[in-house]
Description:
Helix content: 25-40%
CATH topology of the largest domain: Rossmann fold
Strand content: 15-25%
CATH class of the largest domain: Alpha Beta
Radius of gyration: 30 Å
Shape: elongated
Strand order of the largest sheet: 3-21-4-20-19-5-6-8-7-18
Number of domains: 3
Number of strands: 26
Amino acid sequence: MELESKNLLAQKLEELKNIFPEIFDDGVINIDKFKTIFVPQSDEKSEHYSFTWSGKKECYQTIRQKSNATLKIDSSHSELDSQSNSNVFIEGDNLEVLKLLQTSYHKKIKMIYIDPPYNKDKDFVYKDTWGDTITNYLIQTDQLREEGYTSTKTSSTGRRHTNWLNMIYPRLWLSRNLLRDDGVIFVSIDDDEVHNLRKVMDEIYGEENFVANVIWEKKYSPANDAKWFSDNHDHILVYAKNKEIWRPNLLARTEEANARYKNLDNDPRGIWKASDLSVKTYSANTDYPITTPSGRVVNPPSGYSWRVSREKFNELVADSRIWFGQDGNNVPAIKRFLTDVQDGITPLTIWKYSDVGHNQEARQELNALFDGASYFDTPKPVRLIRRMLEIGSNANDEDIILDFFAGSGTTAHAVMELNQDDKKNGKRGNRKYILVQLPEAIESDKFKKISDITKDRIKRVIKKLDYKDGFKSYVLDASNFQVFKELKKRPNDSFDDIVKMLKMSIFTKNIFTQSAKEIDIVYEVGLKNGFSLSAKNESIKGEKYSFIKLYEENRAFYFCFADKVHTDIVTCIPTGAKLICFDKALDDSTKQNLREKLDLETL
């Protein structure tokens, strides 16, 4: 069975090989051939624009390293962890988690929203140095000690921008693999790093897929004690996975927008508003005098012309589509009927707090949920995330929304609230969310870490909205397989060496860690072989054999943890089904017979 995360480099090389097979020799890129085809001779020695920093090469090394960690079911979450849940919350470092999601969620995510650290006055807890083993992650987050978890520090290393870039780059790179071709990502940031983030996004998502730099008015009043300017805005960078495919949804028309339409002449076609008949682009063919019903002669403003020809203008007059004012003396205008305009409003790049909320509103939302405590200085308001969901996801599809810097959990709140409202309006409202949050320490009498707050908020919103779908909760942890847990002791082993050691260990000791549970093994194997985290499980007890069935859609794995398995097991599961059992539970003859009748894999 595949027990590590996807080999991302091999995947990219295979894609490149399919497009440009001529640059490969025996499966390896021939750099000389690459240069011959793609680098003009005249440009080979010239200087090129590039965006780089100390540690960028190590970012690619971080991306290439496969994860042998796993996600274990959070046993403290049993009250909401029913089989029907398809939403997911994960406690753990998002770098490792993103690697673990590569197989099951490749091109499955419709929309990503993240609110990463703004790189103000704190060092990062995201120190990506644990490499091939999660043991270092558990040490760095103090999960191997009882007294607490790691926290941010208020010192500076002198490499502020570099550290931030080394943190954000691999995470954004991994995130792009998860987006559908018609997907979109929204990233919140402030002025400190927006310039660097824009360059990183251009490089990873492609400059051609930049959609917008949205300005969000995050405060409702100026900071009069500001030393220079009152900082009242944040940025939200928007990139499409493929801009040629993705289009934003139109926003619902507001009462204010509709109020601009009247019916001043009782036109039977309904309400309308007057639009300018002149255009700035001058054309002599459409520059002509117009006589109003009152007898006044008007011409286009200087340098302008009318937007229609004289013949078309006469047709519009005859069709009662030109408005000269109540007394027939105004400059002519075109009547735009509400029934003729599109069903919604094209999103703007400036979002006012009156439309999408501000930080104070976000704190008030948390206060209302947590009995007066907000726990966060600058949380995001629900209306802000709802605006992104309305633009980037569909009410009638089972779109998956990913937020791997979950923080206070606003994304989950917004998804549930919008789904609820959609259902009231006759839509399916079936979006799903995946949230990831690091177990970072927080000073609180009630909560030990931020991830506790995130999870608790989701529960409180479910109760408040009487939401019908809960969520499955997972915790990032070391592999259930003993051989991967001991990788730190053998850092130079190749994966082939590890497989050999795994096979040898079957005959000498238990291949699983002492804390391994059968259900955790089921989900570890399932996740690394393409099952989603919302896959269902079912315990099946027979007279001789017991199974755990992991299934979703038209796919199922049957896990049997019996110490001895015989050929009669074929009568217990469907013909051709995938059976997973211990290698040591089968003799050679049984193994051969089962492989003729079942899809057999062994551990």
